[in-house]
Amino acid sequence: MERKDEAEEAKSKVSVIETWLRKHRLLYVGATRHPFIHSIRDGSVDISSFKRWLEQDYIFVRAFVPFVATVLVKAWKESFDATDMDVILSGMASLNDEFAWFNKEASKWGVSLTNVVPQKANLDYCRFLESLMSSEVEYTVAITAFWAIETVYQDSFAHCLEDGSNTPEELRDTCQRWGNDGFGQYCRALQSIAEHHLEKASDDVRKRTEAAVLDVLEYEVAFWNMSQGDT
Ligand code: HMH
Q1: Atom 9 of ligand 1 has which residue's CA nearest to it?
Q2: Does any ligand 1 atom lie closer than 6 A to the CB of residue 183?
Q3: What is the pLDDT of residues 100-116, one digit of tens each?
Q4: Which residues are within 8 A (CB) of 159 and not within 5 positions of it... i.e. 6 or more apart?
Q5: Whole-structure pTM value
């Protein structure tokens, strides 16, 4: 058999993240094609579940911002590629818009975002975020977890906007927020940053990163379950 040259070999090589997505397909699908998402997509969604999701997600995003801030600090210290910081900073800027959006959306639904009591699945997820904020957690682990968190929402909400979906008009804005093409491109930019660092990472860091991605997927499933009311 002829030996492939290096360029060919690089082209056919499956990326680390792609390998994990294949290996953990069921869990990934569980997080991105959850019954709650199906119910938005087919229009059968229970509005009190949607409102619960909105309230709880606002609290989550409040904790997500400081997490992203620590990813930015790690990029500055540990990455030699300036575009990493640009991409993370653009994510932070869109989180700033997201707060304005949450307030607008909450008033549209008659929901108050002050004094929301975080539910257990949310507290657990926020505590996990906090563990990733430690300076002892490597940049590779943190940026890959960041990619996974954003991608679950991107993939889930984009599904609600695909041809054939029956998403109610009043929920389309929410789906657009994370399901739009620009957010998709941003997630792909995060993926390529994460992949670049994973390619260079030690086996130990890779293993811990894979575990963090699995944790993210499980917390996301629990978060959807909580939104549906099965706490
Ligand atoms: C629970 N996961 C959860 N909330 C979000 N807003 C995102 C991911 C994406 O930012």
Answers
A1: 150
A2: no
A3: 999 999 999 999 999 99
A4: 32, 33, 37, 41, 165, 179
A5: 0.94
